[in-house]
Amino acid sequence: MDATPRLKAGIFVRALIRRVAVAGASAFILRKGSEEAGAVVLKVARLDGTVLVLNQVRMGDGRLVWSRALGGWSDEQKARAFCDKQVAFDPDLWIVEIEDRDGRAFVDEEIV
After folding, report:
1. How does pLDDT run across 45-61, given as a tens digit for each residue?
2. Are 69 and 54 in contact (CB under 8 A)?
3. Cα(110)–Cα(85) distance, integer angstroms
């Protein structure tokens, strides 16, 4: 099992925000976690009241993928409750919100 090396969380988040900006969308750090190894949760908001929450997970074969945390598009209240629960479990967690009318996540890894 070959595990893909991971970027430090802070570098990944800053690169993601830059990628989003270059594409004409907006991204914001809602919660700053551990610079070195914090997990990252993405909230993709389509600006119509719907949000897709993604968290990065490692598959059994070692691949990193993004998982739809709430099963798909949800409302802001459910997304906020999920994020609050995750922060209580992992204080090193980063939360990044992407605002894009097309609902793009701007990540290279597969979304499952």
Report:
1. 999 999 999 999 989 99
2. yes
3. 24
Span 20-79, pLDDT tens digits: 999 999 999 999 999 988 899 999 999 999 999 999 998 999 888 999 999 999 999 999
Residue 79 phi, psi (nearest 5): -65, -45
SS3 95: strand
Q: State both tokens at 94.
A: 């980063």
Long-range own/partner contacts, residues 47-54 (CB < 8 A, 24 or more apart): 47/99, 47/100, 47/101, 48/101, 49/75, 49/76, 50/74, 50/75, 50/103, 51/75, 51/76, 51/78, 51/79, 52/103, 52/105, 53/79, 53/82, 53/83, 54/105, 54/107, 54/111
